[in-house]
Amino acid sequence: MMTDAVNGQICFERVTGNVGAIVHGIELSGARDAGTTELLRRGLHEHGVLFFQFKNMVSADEFNAFSEWFGELEGPYALSLSKGEELFIDSDRTPMQDFSINRWHSDGTALECPPQAAMLTPVELPKVGGDTMWASMYAAWEALSPHYQRLLDGLEVLHSTARLRFLRESPQTVHPAVIRDAVTGRKMLFVNSNYSERVIGMSSQESEKLLQMLFEHVNTPEFHVRLRWQPGCIAVWEERVTQHRGVADFSGPRKLRRLTFKGARPAA
Amino acid sequence: MMSDNIQTRRLTTTIGAEISGVNLRSLTEYEADRIRQELDKNCVLVFHDQHLNLDEQSHFAQVFGPLEPLQSLKFLGWSHVLVLDGLVTARSERRPTEQWVEYPGWHTDSSFTRAVPRAAVLRAEIIPPVGGMTSWVNMCAAFEALSPAMREWLKTLRAVHSYPAGYREKIGVDKLAQDVQERFDAEFAPRDHPVVFRHPRSERCGLFVNPTYTTHIVGLSAKESRMLLNFLFTHFSNADFIYRHLWREGDIVVWDELATLHLAPDAAEYAPHRRRVVRVTAGLEAPVAA
Fold it and tell me: Nearest CA to B259 among B38, B22, B18, B21?
């Protein structure tokens, strides 16, 4: 944990074999430079999720300023429930179980261009519990047998809000089942249990069985990292390289500030 | 003159036909030909009011090839005749080469061997007053109902078949000399077959997996394999592909072992009554990849 940056260089401390790294050597409000920006963005695509730990609770302004390391923010996140407001993941307004936050998902994949990345920082935390987990879709893809990889590569999946009855809007779109990361060149699995409705060209039973198997596959501990939130922590994740979920094991309020980054259309 | 009394009535839209207007004791070459064609087409044939004895049944079975026991039973010197008696009697009263309780679960006979019989001919000797139905599923119809993406993918896979726990004991292999047991184990080691076969005469493709003998798909993880097999097993057991036969005195039923799986009734289903059926197998067919 005490691996501090040397000579102003940042360093990534991997926290599991497959996903997640703590970033050392970044100041919350330090000056940005192109070289470090490039390192951070590359690190995000390699590790899937980056963790930063600062001394104190991060304010809205600090959070916004920090986001500039990672790219261009989206407007109000298209599937959010609190349009026009500052976006929070707030247990009082969107209890995890009711809003499928505690199921593995990528955000907004029913959109043609879902967010590329997102970041969270706590505002109010329960005494215990309410962790967030991420799963590596590189690892999920690579752990499939060559036979299943051959079946999936080239298939297309309808993403919709059919499994999320609470949403006001109901966009839908088709994405490849397997996409490639533009930065690392690695392939990854791109189906998730909140938005992936059916596999194009398969019968309902075939599609549902296949998707259920993949949803279960994503829930493999070897692909996961779990963060216990502390005040002053910022987590940034790549929305295609990872899926995420909350852990609904807490009582009392849990409120996190969230920002999302504009995304490209997922491509094979 | 060619007989033209032979008539076919389909029993479902996907599987099974009743053949009438023939006497299985004295078939003309034309009738035998028609019966072979109808079997290739319908997978299961039902003949009522035949009242054959065992010799006549064995004679008729040769329409489909030389009499041939299941390969695992042939190894033990058993004949092509298998008596399946559902009465729960003391095993000691039975001659081991003739009496056997039926295998539970959908299966193709001895799919864990190199080749399965081409056809099986079943005759009921004792029919319970109610129940005791035998079921068959057309694995070609089941395959054809899958999506093109799934069908093409399945054609590239192979599955391992193996006899289940207790099978060696059931047929008495464990009581044989050690060297014979070793030869049996070598000959009937787990073996892989294509998941999809092409039928040699109908040219239709069908699924060659069954819940009794198929253990896993080659090259898949245990989870993937279990999921895929469960999916296929649920898929084929759809009523759309199944014919169930309610036995009548004098019936003969023939089925294509490659193209179908069959399911015998559990003895508990017709208890306390007795059910005794006699099966004769003929010909040999190794599944060939589609």
Answer: B38
Rounded Cα gap, residues A26 and A65, in angstroms = 13
The answer, for B222 touching chain A at a CB cutoff of 8 Å, is no
Closest partner residue to A148 among B148, B150, B224, by Cβ? B224
CA distance B160 to chain A (A): 15
Contacts of B105 (CB under 8 A, 6+ apart): B210, B211, B212, B263
ipTM tops 0.90? no
Distance (Å) from the C-alpha of residue B149 to the closest C-alpha of chain A? Answer: 7
Closest C-alpha to A52, from A119, A107, A104, A142: A119
* pTM for the predicted model, two decimal places: 0.89
Closest CA in chain B for residue A156: B149
d(CA B122, CA B64): 13
Question: Any chain A CB within 8 A of the CB of B220?
Answer: yes
| Helical spans, DSSP H, in B62-190 | 71-75, 139-144, 148-154, 167-170, 178-187
Q: What are the DSSP E strand ranges found in chain A?
A: 11-14, 21-24, 49-53, 88-90, 117-124, 132-136, 156-160, 172-176, 178-180, 187-189, 196-199, 224-227, 233-238, 242-246, 255-261
Do B146 and A150 make contact, defined as CB atoms within 8 angstroms?
no
Question: A-B interface: how many C-beta pairs under 8 angstroms?
Answer: 48
Chain B residue with minimum CA distance to A154:
B149
What is the rounded distance in angstroms from the CA atom of residue A49 to the CA atom of residue A119? 9
Could you tell me which residues are beta bridge partners of residue A156?
Answer: A176
Q: How far is B219 from chain A (nearest CA, A)?
A: 7
CA angle A238, A240, A244 (to 5 degrees): 70
Task: Please report, in tens digits, the pLDDT of each residue of chain B (290 residues total).
Answer: 455 799 999 999 999 999 999 999 999 999 999 999 999 999 999 999 999 999 999 999 999 999 999 999 999 998 889 888 865 443 444 454 444 555 668 999 999 999 999 999 999 999 999 999 999 999 999 999 999 999 999 999 999 999 988 889 888 899 999 999 999 999 999 999 999 999 999 999 999 999 999 999 999 999 999 999 999 999 999 989 999 999 999 999 999 999 999 999 888 888 888 899 999 999 999 999 99
